[in-house]
């Protein structure tokens, strides 16, 4: 998507969609279900390859598919197989010749999920290397795979993040790749993160993003303001203060103005 409502980036880029983590609060699954499906009478299967890895169904799409809206008009089908892991090869070069921007890679997937073939990751990084004008932000729950895959760590435009929602997972920051720009996304914030127990994180990471669960899930967690205050205070007290970015979803809890800081180490984007 050339423009996005995600506040901390300019664009999202989804050459891979779909995820098998099964998080009950997942916004991406809701979106994929809402806009999923395609019209086989128009598309057929000529441009898809389906196979399995570890018993899981995977799909490779060589061309964009279509579906019909309520009026019977043909429109693009961004998630033809809803949330099945899918490689959209036709989107790989979407930002190749565009002006520089901050890009969240695979906001509708976990590119480093255990089910994702190395070849898919290689294709994504291959394109990133051909378009070095952009900053690329990667985010995963399967943080160990950064190192198993040996992601590029010396590029100053590559940022690697881990998604943490509960205190028991706070130590995952330790598994972020060394010698790389690192960030933590505490979203959705589902409980008190007890940052005093994990003070090492604030010496280790370069950016902290905080957000809450959105949508209308029946058991949606609404965090307490103190949980957020404690995180901010620890970011501020670090030897080198860690920038904090509060997503707009925090406005009802934190109030205005929100803290929305960017690291000075992000490669400058020429507008």
Give an overview in words.
This protein is α/β, with parallel strands linked by helices and 271 residues long. The protein is built from 7 helices and 13 strands. The strands form 3 sheets. The chain has a 7-stranded parallel β-sheet with strand order 1-8-9-10-11-12-13, with helices on one face. The chain is globular and about 60 Å long.
Key terms:
271 residues, alpha/beta, 7-stranded parallel beta sheet, 4-stranded mixed beta sheet, globular
Strand percent estimate: 15-25%
What does the radius of gyration come to?
Answer: 19 Å
Structural class: alpha/beta
Residue runs with pLDDT of under 50 for 5 or more positions? none
The major sheet is characterized as: 7 strands, parallel
Strand order in space, largest sheet: 1-8-9-10-11-12-13
How many separate helices?
Answer: 7
Give the strand tally: 13
Tell me the distance between the termini.
Answer: 18 Å
Query: What would the average pLDDT be, to the nearest integer?
Result: 92
Give the SSE string: EEHHEEEEEEHEHEEHEHEH
Query: Percentage of helical residues?
Result: 10-25%
Choose one word for the global shape. Answer: globular
How is the secondary structure organized here?
Elements: E1 11-13, E2 16-17, H1 27-34, H2 40-43, E3 48-53, E4 56-61, E5 65-68, E6 74-77, E7 86-88, E8 102-105, H3 118-130, E9 135-140, H4 144-149, E10 158-163, E11 181-186, H5 201-204, E12 207-210, H6 225-237, E13 244-246, H7 251-254
Parallel strand pairs: 1-8, 4-7, 8-9, 9-10, 10-11, 11-12, 12-13
Antiparallel strand pairs: 2-7, 3-4, 5-6
């Amino acid at each position: 998507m050339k423009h996005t409502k995600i506040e901390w980036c300019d664009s999202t880029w989804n050459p891979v969609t779909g995820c098998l983590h099964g998080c009950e609060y997942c916004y991406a699954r809701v979106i994929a279900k809402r806009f999923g499906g395609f019209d086989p009478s128009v598309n057929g299967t000529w441009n898809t390859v389906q196979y399995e890895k570890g018993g899981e169904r995977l799909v490779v799409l060589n061309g964009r598919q279509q579906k019909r809206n309520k009026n019977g008009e043909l429109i693009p089908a961004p998630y033809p197989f809803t949330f099945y892991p899918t490689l959209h090869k036709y989107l790989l070069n979407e930002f190749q010749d565009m002006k520089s921007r901050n890009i969240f890679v695979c906001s509708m997937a976990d590119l480093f999920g255990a089910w994702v073939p190395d070849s898919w990751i290689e294709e994504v990084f291959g394109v990133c290397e051909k378009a070095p004008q952009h900053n690329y932000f990667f985010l995963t729950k399967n943080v160990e795979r950064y190192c198993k895959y040996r992601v590029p760590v010396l590029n100053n435009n590559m940022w690697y993040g881990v998604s943490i929602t509960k205190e028991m997972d706070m130590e995952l920051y330790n598994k972020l790749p060394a010698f790389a720009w690192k960030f933590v996304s505490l979203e959705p914030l589902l409980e008190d993160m007890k940052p005093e127990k994990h003070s090492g994180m604030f010496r280790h990471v370069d950016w902290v993003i905080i957000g809450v669960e959105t949508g209308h899930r029946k058991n949606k967690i609404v965090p307490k303001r103190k949980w957020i205050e404690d995180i901010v205070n620890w970011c501020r007290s670090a030897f080198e203060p860690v920038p904090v970015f509060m997503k707009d979803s925090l406005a009802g809890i934190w109030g205005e103005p929100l803290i929305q800081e960017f690291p000075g180490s992000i490669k400058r984007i020429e507008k």
